[in-house]
Amino acid sequence: EDEARRRLRLGLQLLSTANTRPREGCSPPGYGRAK
Fold first, then answer.
1. DSSP at 35
2. Can you tell me the distance from the alpha carbon of 35 to that of 30, in angstroms, rounded to the nearest whole number?
3. At a CB cut-off of 8 Å and minimum separation 6, what does 31 contact?
4. Is residue 11 helix, strand or coil?
5. What's the pLDDT score for residue 32?
6. Tens digits of per-residue pLDDT, 1-35?
7. Residues 6+ positions from 18 with CB-CB distance below 8 Å
8. Would you say the pTM of this structure is higher than 0.85?
9. SS3 1
10. How many secondary structure helices (H) and strands (E) does the chain include?
11. Can you say whether the dihedral through the CA atoms of 30, 28, 17, 9 is positive or negative?
């Protein structure tokens, strides 16, 4: 469960950073294509 919680926290942090930085998440050059 510790690993699952860490993964959840990492995901939440990524989401929070994306929300705080809408410019990078809006139109990133080659980010969506990389995925």
1. -
2. 9
3. 24
4. helix
5. 55
6. 899 999 999 988 888 776 666 555 555 555 555 55
7. 24, 25
8. no
9. coil
10. 3, 0
11. negative
